Amino acid sequence: MTLSRRRTPRDVSRGPASPGDPPGPRPDAHAEALGLAHVATAAFVGARVAPSAQFWLSLPGGVALARAAQRRGLGRGYGASLAATLQGVAILGPLRVNGPLTQAISAPALGRLEARGAPVAVQFAACLALRLLHYAVLNVLAVWLLLGGIDGYVRTYEATTGWAGVLPQGRTGALVVGIAWQLLWAAFFSVVQVAVYRRALRRWPESGEAHDGSAPAAAPAGGHDARALAVAALVAFAVLLASTSPVVLAGVATWLALACLLARPDAQVARVGAGLAVLLAVGALAAGLIGTLGFVPSLRRAARAALLVLVATWLRGAAGPEGMRDVFGAVLARLRRLGWAREARALLEGLDSAPRLMAAGRELIEALRPVRKRPGPVADATTGWVAAEAARGAGGAPPAPARLEVRRRDRLVVALAALPIAGLLGHAL
């Protein structure tokens, strides 16, 4: 059976103007949103490729998303944000996604507040609250997955800070110091983010010319049905989150080895994912040993962390960017009653291919390299680039529909996901 992904025609409707928009005819609303989502994707990809300057490289992408919400409303702004985030994951996988994700979460809200003339204090408070919420979720997940819970976190904290004799100890001390540290960094990043957004949005160029996009590439030959691969990977994720039992870990590892033989991942993606898995496993093991959590429990958590990364890496490497877009598009289609989901799906289908976005991300890296890392210089250096690149992205042609075949090997990968489930049931019994 052959499946083709349908590309929806670009919407030609014109949305209402927002405060601060320049006079004159309004550009095509969907094309404008597509261009801004293109910029956000390119910036987020560039930030993940160059993690040493991740925050500063993510800011232009946040500016583009804030502009989308300022012009088209909060729901459509978050639709553009979701499309850019999913396209970046389709290109690079989940590697180092958390830095740009903070911008993706907060930028549309700040853009809408700017459109309504909210004072800077309100914008800062909104940005800080969203950042702290994001940080809280990440820290809870990290403590649960790597340290087994709050008790493991407290023991690790005391083992690493108790020798100094300065910081407070115990559960209360560990929580207070951790929260204060997160609050300090969130406040700093929020101040910079709000300053850059306000300056960029208020100095936005009046117009930009879209460049003609090249013709879409020919449809690629039939490949794996990424939706089937995603179902199998989802089963492995769920089993790993449920238990660190040796039989569960062995079941997932066996399934993953067979899945790699049946649906080989891209070699470069596999190498990067393997390196990240090793680093994460070593960090988890070291944290557990420092916190005196026991060698065997720490080793199990380290193995689970590595397997989570390896399963995600396999899915991205075997499915490819277009396959991942199919998976995301199918999920968004289920949520089509929600306006932001419809917007995200329409934009995701029109975003450029990975090579063009990677090239734009590299251009941004070079543009920001000589700029002083201060809000004013960064805003001034990137506003023109964001507007020009948005015009180019709006004028580009969407990728050609992919031709996907549901192969026997794909069905076998899904069937073999019974191995991790059997391991979990065996552990429970």
Description:
With 429 residues, the protein is an all-alpha fold. It has one domain. The chain contains 16 helices and two strands. It has helices at 29-49, 54-72, 74-92, 98-115, 120-147, 150-161, 170-202, 226-242, 246-262, 267-290, 295-334, 339-350, 354-368, 375-395, 408-416, 418-428; strands at 2-4, 403-405. It has a two-stranded antiparallel sheet. Helix 1 (29-49) packs antiparallel against helix 2 (54-72), helix 4 (98-115) packs antiparallel against helix 5 and helix 4 packs across helix 7. It starts with a strand and ends with a helix. Residues 1-27 and 208-222 have low confidence and may be disordered.
Rounded to the nearest angstrom, the distance between the terminal CA atoms is 40 Å
Tell how many strands the DSSP assignment holds: 2
Unreliable segments (pLDDT under 50, ≥5 consecutive)?
1-27, 208-222
Helix content: over 70%
Question: Which descriptors apply to this entry?
Answer:
two-stranded antiparallel ribbon; single chain; 74% helix; 429 residues; mainly alpha
Outline:
The chain is mainly α and 429 residues long.
Blueprint (SSEs and pairs):
Layout: E1 2-4, H1 29-49, H2 54-72, H3 74-92, H4 98-115, H5 120-147, H6 150-161, H7 170-202, H8 226-242, H9 246-262, H10 267-290, H11 295-334, H12 339-350, H13 354-368, H14 375-395, E2 403-405, H15 408-416, H16 418-428
Antiparallel strand pairs: 1-2
